[in-house]
C-alpha cells in the first residue's frame, strides 16, 4: 500500500490554486484508482512553512529547486531546505516534474530510483522550435519592423524543404523536433552520446563528431540534457563550423552554450540569430548582452508552457505509478552516471 505524495507545482503550470495546490479532482481520481494508493498533496508554501506529510511517503512526484540557486526563486518549487520531510528512509521512488534532473540528482539517496518527466514537455517545446524556425525562414521579425514603419516591402524568404537542421540530443524532445521538421521536408541530423540509427534522423553522430554534424546545418536545436559531457558543448569552435546564415535555438539548459562565444558570434554576424529559452543565470540579468542584440529572441524558460501540462504530468506519473504497484520496470529511469 504505497503512500504517495505530490509535492510542489510543476514549473510553468498555467492554472493552479493560489495556495499552490494543482491536482484536479480528475487527477486525484486517476491516482487513487490504483490499488492501495494513499494520496497526499502538499504545496511548496506548506512544506516551506514546516508542514510535513501525514505519512512518510514511499513515492513522490516532486518539483524542486534542488541544489540550483537559480531555480530557488521560482514559484511552486520545493526548496532544498524543505526536502527533509520528503526524502526519508521510507522512500522507494521519486519522479521529477522536470525532464532535466541535474538539480535534483545529487540529493537522491543511493538505491532510490529517480525517474524524469522526459516526454511530458516534448510537444510544447518542439512546437516552439518549429515556430522559431518558421519565423526565421519567413522573416517575421523584419515584417513586424516593417509594419511598425508602415513600410510595404516584399522580402526574400526561404522554404524549409531540404534545409538541414542539426538536433543536439535525440531523446523525447529531440525526436519530436525531428518529427515536425520531417513533416516540412527538412533533412534532420542528430547528435547523441553515441552514434546510432534512429527513425526520423538521416544520421545520428556521436558527440565526438559534433563539428562534422554542424557543418552544413542552417538550424541547430539544442535539446540535450545538461551533464558534465554537454556543459559548454556549443563553444566558439562549434559555432565556427556554422555558416553565417545559420540560426541557433536553445530550449535545453543554458550552460550547454558558451554565452561569451555566442554573443561574440552574433555581434560579428557570424550567425544570423538565435532563439534562447535557457540561460546560465535565470532570471536573465537586465544588463546581459542578449537583451540588446537585435537578432536574439528571448523566452523566459517557458517553451514548455501548455494548457495540457498538468494533465501530461499526471498521465506520465500514473503510468509509472501503475508499474510501481504492479512490480514492473519504471519508465524514464535516470542513470546517475550519465546524468539523465
UniProtKB/TrEMBL annotation:
Superkingdom, natural source: Bacteria
Entry-linked Pfam families: 2-Hacid_dh_C (PF02826)
Entry keywords, A to Z: NAD, Oxidoreductase
Residues covered by the D-isomer specific 2-hydroxyacid dehydrogenase NAD-binding domain: 131-301
InterPro entries, A to Z: D-isomer_DH_NAD-bd, NAD(P)-bd_dom_sf
Protein name in UniProt: D-2-hydroxyacid dehydrogenase
Species of provenance: Amycolatopsis rubida
Amino acid at each position: 500500500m504505497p503512500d504517495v505524495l505530490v509535492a510542489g507545482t510543476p514549473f510553468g503550470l498555467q492554472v493552479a490554486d493560489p495556495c499552490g495546490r494543482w491536482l484536479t479532482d480528475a487527477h486525484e481520481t486517476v491516482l487513487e484508482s490504483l490499488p492501495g494508493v494513499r494520496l497526499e498533496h502538499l504545496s511548496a508554501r506548506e512544506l516551506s512553512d514546516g508542514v510535513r506529510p501525514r505519512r512518510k511517503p514511499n513515492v513522490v512526484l516532486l518539483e524542486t529547486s534542488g541544489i540550483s540557486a537559480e531555480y530557488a526563486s521560482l514559484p511552486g518549487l520545493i526548496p532544498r531546505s524543505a526536502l527533509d520531510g520528503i526524502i526519508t528512509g521510507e522512500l522507494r521512488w521519486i519522479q521529477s516534474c522536470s525532464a532535466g534532473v541535474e538539480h535534483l540528482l545529487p540529493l537522491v539517496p543511493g538505491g532510490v530510483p529517480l525517474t524524469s518527466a522526459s516526454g511530458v514537455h516534448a510537444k510544447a517545446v518542439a512546437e516552439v522550435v518549429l515556430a522559431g524556425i518558421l519565423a526565421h525562414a519567413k522573416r517575421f521579425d523584419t515584417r513586424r519592423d516593417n509594419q511598425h514603419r508602415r513600410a510595404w516591402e516584399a522580402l526574400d524568404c526561404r522554404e524549409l524543404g531540404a534545409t538541414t537542421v542539426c538536433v543536439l540530443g535525440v531523446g523525447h524532445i529531440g525526436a519530436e523536433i525531428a518529427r515536425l521538421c520531417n513533416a516540412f521536408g527538412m533533412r534532420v541530423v542528430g547528435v547523441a552520446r553515441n552514434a546510432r540509427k534512429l527513425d526520423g534522423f538521416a544520421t545520428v553522430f556521436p558527440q565526438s563528431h559534433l563539428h562534422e554534424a554542424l557543418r552544413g546545418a542552417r538550424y541547430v536545436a539544442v535539446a540535450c540534457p545538461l551533464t558534465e559531457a554537454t556543459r559548454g558543448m556549443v563553444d566558439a569552435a562549434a559555432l565556427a563550423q556554422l555558416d553565417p546564415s545559420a540560426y541557433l535555438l536553445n530550449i535545453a539548459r543554458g550552460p550547454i552554450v558558451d554565452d561569451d562565444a555566442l554573443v561574440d558570434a552574433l555581434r560579428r554576424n557570424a550567425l544570423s540569430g538565435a532563439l534562447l529559452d535557457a540561460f546560465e543565470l535565470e532570471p536573465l540579468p537586465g544588463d546581459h548582452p542578449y537583451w540588446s542584440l537585435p537578432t536574439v529572441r528571448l523566452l523566459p524558460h517557458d517553451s514548455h508552457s501548455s494548457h495540457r501540462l498538468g494533465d501530461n504530468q499526471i498521465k506520465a506519473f500514473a503510468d509509472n505509478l501503475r508499474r510501481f504497484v504492479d512490480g514492473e520496470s519504471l519508465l524514464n529511469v535516470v542513470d546517475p552516471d550519465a546524468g539523465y
